[in-house]
Design brief:
alpha/beta; 16 helices; 9 strands; binds ligand LEDWP2DD; fatty-acyl-CoA binding
Amino acid sequence: MAHLAAGLARRWCPSSLQVVNFPVVQLHVSLRAMRASHTEFENAMNQVKLLKKDPGNEVKLKLYALYKQATEGPCNMPKPGVFDLISKAKWDAWNALGSLPKETAKQSYVDLVSSLNSSSKSSGQVEPRADSKPPGYETLVVTSEDGITKIMLNRPTKKNAMNPQMYHEIMLALEAASKDESSITVLTGSGDYYSSGNDLTNFTDIPSGGVQEKAKNGAILLRDFVGCFIDFPKPLIAVVNGPAVGIAVTTLGLFDAVYATDRATFHTPFSHLGQSPEGCSSHTFPRIMSPSKATEMLIFGKKLTAREACAQGLVTEVFPDSTFQKEVWTRLKAYAKLPPNAMRISKQVIRNKEKEKLHAINAEECSVLQERWLSDECMNAVVNFLSRKAKL
Ligand SMILES: CCCCCCCCCCCCC/C=C/C(=O)SCCNC(=O)CCNC(=O)[C@H](O)C(C)(C)COP(=O)(O)OP(=O)(O)OC[C@H]1O[C@@H](n2cnc3c(N)ncnc32)[C@H](O)[C@@H]1OP(=O)(O)O
């Protein structure tokens, strides 16, 4: 263990690693904490030591913050003085994670390290604009202007399918948005899709602990992910720029408003996939659209057009695709000028009534899904999807 601690410390703070415009971040590793870490987590720490190139200070700060959050929980250090730049940078990075659960931070650390090992930018991704937030996100573009923080899913070549890294980055982005200066937060997609839901390749890389462990970790990830939408304190708006599938549809029931282009469709093929509803949709959909309409979507997999979804109450308003972005953003900028505390408090008055119930429903849905993922029905459906191109 000691050599590992020394290795990590040496890796990120050798004098040769002089990096422009940012002090080199010293990575302090506590032996006590490492003994408690999970196999994957320990492997990831090993991989950090073996990285061939310096990932840059932003990423190193993120690694540091996620490591501390995973091993010690929310930031418990006194805020350093302004002149202690290195400690201040580290403190800021860790503190920004707020109350992110240890499990989530641990998984984010593992995913970040694996993305550092194998990430390659795919074509068509939107490059973060100069005025967007510091580029610490691989699968999102997050910008903040006119009182609006916009979180844009940015895997357009994969129809913005959500892989573990995207789940974690959305949680981190929501955590940051809940604390920033903006008054409303928007989730949208880049490219022609809002999101095709869970990335079905998530079912492929089975860890050493086996498929049961993968399902358990997946259920934890899903519970934390949906929990972030349940607890989000500011008005949360979905700008559905195209078709939405699976979890991208079910979580809409936890948004405060949903605006869609008339090109959008809404599809929850859970039975086809051998799976079951998530995102609290087992509760929100019957309440929003009536039990029988919810059955048609969640059990029979009926795909809705934008206008049908609006008629059923899942979508707030539909706009012609040609004027969608202009109309929606004009409206959102006007909303964002309203008194932020009044909006936040009003949302709390509405949401607090059922927050506890939603968390219980979320936990139940995740527990059922954890079993479903191990079923033949689910495995066969995933294999069919992943092998469909091979048949062409
Ligand atoms: C053993 C335990 C495992 C546990 C796993 C845990 C996971 C983490 C926990 C979170 C779980 C949340 C639960 C969520 C459930 C859901 O969201 S269910 C819905 C899942 N989504 C789908 O079933 C959609 C699958 N995709 C499609 O049907 C089609 O791609 C499309 C969306 C209808 C688009 O079709 P088309 O226009 O023909 O484009 P394609 O060529 O198919 O797609 C372009 C490329 O994008 C890839 N892609 C698209 N969607 C996905 C996806 N969801 N997963 C993976 N990949 C996707 C597609 O393969 C293409 O890739 P290339 O072939 O490389 O170009």
